[in-house]
Amino acid sequence: MQYSIYAPECIDTIIKLPASKSISNRALIIYALTGGSLLPENISDCDDTSVIVHALRYMPEVIDIKAAGTAMRFLTAYLAATDGHHIITGTDRMQQRPIKILVEALRYLGADITYLGKEGYPPLEIKGRQLDGGHLEIAGDVSSQYISALLMIGPALKNGLELKLNGEIASRPYIELTLWMMKEFGADAEWSDIDTITIMPKSYQSRPYTIESDWSGASYWYEIMALGNKDAKIRLRGLTDGSKQGDSVVKYLFSLLGVKTTFENRKENRASDVILTRHEGAVPRLDYDFINSPDLAQTFVVCCALMEIPFHFTGLASLRIKETDRIEALRKELKKLGYLVKESNGSELIWAGEHCTPTPESIDTYEDHRMALSFAPAAYRFPGITINHPQVVTKSYPAFWNDIKSAGFSILEK
Predict the structure, then answer these.
(1) Are residues 392 and 249 in the same domain?
(2) Is 207 inside any structural domain?
(3) Structural domain for 381, as ranges
(4) Which residues constitute the signal peptide according to the record (predicted)?
(5) Are 248 and 275 part of one and the same domain?
(6) Domain end residue (candidates: 170, 199, 228)
(7) Same domain, yes or no: 106 and 173
(8) CA separation (Å) from 58 to 24, 33, 51, 62?
(9) Per-position b or e across 81-90, b if 16+ CB within 10 A of its CB
């Protein structure tokens, strides 16, 4: 399937954003550890969350999480620390994504996990049981999902968990989000030192909980605003000022690209409508370290190039092990549009304004939802841009194509 996309002359729209995938996935694991008396409200309907819901509801012997990396990490820890015997697997790409660091950490805590294929990679056979817990050390610059997976099972461990993070700590906002949510459900979890988190063996408490909207999903509407007509107006529903979501930094970064954010309700922890408008004064160049918000990188790489704003983005090492090698995917697809982006040190992307002749090729998505989502707004600069396999957006934002059509975009299916 292919979509050819045409942008409207001007936008004035109201969008109900999807629920936060990050919060939904954490809430579901914590919910399961409470005993499951109250299911969180407004759970994301994306693929990544749906596989967790299915696994926790039915607990099949073989759990197929498809392409959901978060589900693989979170469920591996959950299954290891609770009674049961399961095999957890996923797509071919998932079986190429490393999980050795998490498995070794869980084994150190007493988990019974066996690789059924290549050493260090899914699928896994897990014989779950209560783990003793105690002191554990892990590199701080690994995927924050490994760290969050370990933290969330901490209260269920016999002796709790003292987790020391060695070296630089990457994606700290996602760790803080996990700790905040754990405490929302009654956990005793705190930073006991600059690099150490201590979690007491204390059961989670079931409580009503409503998932807020997704700041990652909002980022694509910010991109649309930045690239579109200056008179455009976009109203986004359900965002929270002071959100613990790391990607809420998008509102500050896009202010540098000329997009103004106005909250109708600024009460802390209360969902609000957010109004996006354009203003003058985009920066002539953008340098930024995405180590704490890597999921925003594709949005800004594409947007800055199309706005002719040179950039130097660092902290991108984790993009190599996502749904695809996002660094190479971005370079290849932007070259089709005439932008020569350079890679450095395996973790940086640089564009100094270099161009080449565009080609008429379609944009490949590499089974990666964020490739489709971040390139769709390019229709403002390249009317009729064609995106291959656009259905990949269901991984995080299933209603995206319907939403941009309601905003005035035209989509032709091929």
Answers:
(1) yes
(2) no
(3) 2-18+212-413
(4) none
(5) yes
(6) 199
(7) yes
(8) 18, 15, 11, 11
(9) bbeeebbbbb
The tokens of 268 are what? 């802390």
Note if 273 is an active site residue. Answer: no
Predicted confidence band at 387 (pLDDT cuts at 50, 70, 90)?
Answer: very high
Closest CA to 119 of 131, 107, 132, 127: 107
Residues in binding site for phosphoenolpyruvate: 21, 69, 97, 145, 326, 370, 395
Please tell me whether the overall predicted TM-score, pTM, comes out greater than 0.90 for this model: no
pLDDT at residue 322 greater than cutoff 90: no
- Indicate whether 192 belongs to any domain: yes
**Per-residue confidence at 270, pLDDT binned at 50, 70, 90?**
confident
Q: Over the stretch 108-136, which tens digit does the pLDDT of each residue have?
A: 999 999 999 999 999 999 999 999 999 99
End of a domain among 199, 221, 247? 199
Indicate whether 175 and 270 sit together in one domain: no
Bridge partner residues of 63 (DSSP): 88
Task: Tell me the average pLDDT across 390-394.
Answer: 96
Residues 145 and 293 in one domain: no
pLDDT at 354: 97
Q: For 114, phi and psi rounded to 5 degrees? A: -125, 135
Name residue 189's amino acid.
A
* Residue 229 backbone phi and psi in degrees, to 5: -70, 145
The owner of tokens 């461990």 is 157
204 located within any domain: no
Tell me how many domains the chain contains.
2
- As annotated, the binding site for 3-phosphoshikimate includes 21-22, 26, 143-145, 171, 295, 322
Dist. CA 348–CA 339, nearest whole Å: 16
Name the strand (E) or helix (H) holding 385. Answer: strand 385-388
Burial class (CB in 10 A: 0-12, 13-18, 19+), 1: exposed
Are both 229 and 273 inside the same structural domain? yes
Q: What is the rounded distance in angstroms from the CA atom of residue 165 to the CA atom of residue 215?
A: 27
User: Residue 244 to residues 69, 181, 399: CA-CA distances in angstroms?
Assistant: 21, 9, 24
Write down the catalytic residue from 295, 364, 368, 403. Answer: 295
